[in-house]
Amino acid sequence: MAPTLALVGATGAVGTVMIDIMNGRQEWPWGEVRLIASQRSAGRHLTVRGVEHTVVALSPEAFDGVDIAMFDVPDEISAEWAPIAASRGAVVVDNSGAFRMDDDVPLVVPECNLDRIHDRPRGIIANPNCTTLSMMAALGALHRTFDLRELVVASYQAVSGAGVAGVERLYAELAAVVGKGVGVRAGDVREALEAARLPLEDSPFPAPLALNVVPAAGSYKGDGWYSEELKVRNESRKILGIPDLRVSATCVRVPVVTTHSLAVHATFASEVTVEQAREVFEAQPSVVLMDDPADNVFPTPADVVGGDPTYVGRIRQALDFPNTLDFFVCGDNLRKGAALNTYEIAEALAR
Ligand code: 2RA
Fold this sequence. Notes:
Blueprint: E1 5-8, H1 13-24, E2 33-37, E3 45-48, E4 51-54, E5 56-57, E6 68-71, H2 75-87, E7 91-94, H3 110-113, E8 124-126, H4 130-146, E9 148-157, H5 164-177, H6 188-195, E10 220-222, E11 225-226, H7 227-240, E12 246-253, E13 260-268, H8 274-282, E14 287-289, H9 301-304, E15 310-317, E16 324-331, H10 335-350
Helix pairs in contact: 1-10, 4-7, 4-10
This protein binds 3-amino-D-alanine.
3-amino-D-alanine (2RA) binds at residues 129-131, 157, 161-162, 217-218, 228.
């Protein structure tokens, strides 16, 4: 019998992208589809592949008969409800941060470690954070061939990583500064936001985003590190299966709506040429090369947003580090960075 698929968080930002992905899939291995959300959203009607579904409220019974449950909800909801879904017999694919570093929960990127989906003692499989995910298809391909030893990363993260509130805040800030001649004197952007009744206390970000970049992504964790930077380190190690990989990340929020970018400085066991790296990227179906700087070809968020692949450009052999490649990647943080990777895991389970 075709398996039953549940989507928990069906009405949220990532849930909405998930339905879009489900609508676009060629293969369709599922029988029943069940859309689950909070009590507040229960009763809403959503269409999946031309069939109208009524959203049901999150409850233990909602998981009865479900084979695979994809969770796109905040950490605390997943922490409570994923084990309940698993206890009712569903395999959970969870997109929150609640289980990613749990030793009994595999952290899966299909291009890197799909075989791990079978080793799930808690009945839960975790989806990585979008920042890590945005580079993983490219980095995993290089690692398989050249043996990654060190990773130094700077991220340029879109505001939709902070949810709908992040997107609304950026648009409001841009409206408050455009045509005001600000951005030329220290503090004038903050003044323009205050004048537009956009106090920073109401923002999901700790500094103005309009006409700015903010070197603080996620929550502050002490010793100088933000949560996004620690996630890049810990998750990269777990996904690639290199527990002692040397990693250092600086994560920066930028005024981009959707699509995270990363400048990657990756060091391998021996020298890797740009040509060798290109061959590896070209052989990876989910990586698209955009790398002809002489002709202004490189990935930018504005040019690739909405796409499923990991876009790679600016590939260089680092001048003073022969074993090191520098490159720039862009990935849609809501698609491969969240919904698509989760769906790909569910699809692999169904197969
Ligand atoms: C962010 N990576 O960009 C986070 C979202 N999970 O804020």
